[in-house]
Automatic annotation (TrEMBL):
This is Guanidinium exporter. The keyword ATP-binding does not apply. The chain crosses the membrane at residues 35-52, 59-80, 86-106. One of its GO terms (biological process) is xenobiotic detoxification by transmembrane export across the plasma membrane. InterPro entries: EmrE-like (IPR037185), Small_drug/metabolite_transptr (IPR000390), Small_multidrug_res (IPR045324). PANTHER family: GUANIDINIUM EXPORTER, SMR FAMILY PROTON-DEPENDENT DRUG EFFLUX TRANSPORTER SUGE. The keyword Membrane applies. Belongs to the drug/metabolite transporter (DMT) superfamily. Small multidrug resistance (SMR) (TC 2.A.7.1) family. Gdx/SugE subfamily. It is found in: Cell membrane. Signal peptide: none annotated. It comes from the Bacteria. GO terms for molecular function: transmembrane transporter activity. It comes from Labilibaculum antarcticum.
Amino acid sequence: MAIAWIYLIIAGLFEAVWAVGLKYAEGFTKLWPSLVTIVAMAISLYFLALAIKTLPLGTAYAVWTGIGAFSTAILGIVLFSEPIHFSRIFFLILLLVSIIGLKFTAVS
């Protein structure tokens, strides 16, 4: 089951890659960012599919989207100078706590 969690983390991180890739692809009008985005989507879904062979679907999906959302928000701050303020950090921390909580309460 530990490998399924590793697969899920990889899937979530690649979700962030393709989300950021969408920004750089500018509506799929730029070739290389578009290709990176599409490949990252495929990798993310592949690892999610591997993870849900073992993990409960609801937990795996929630963790996958949570990792992607958290990572994408952080990358938005770092790469695109998106606003950073107390409430945003507070809710990102809550999201991280929720992801960790789901991991520790998951049963299969």
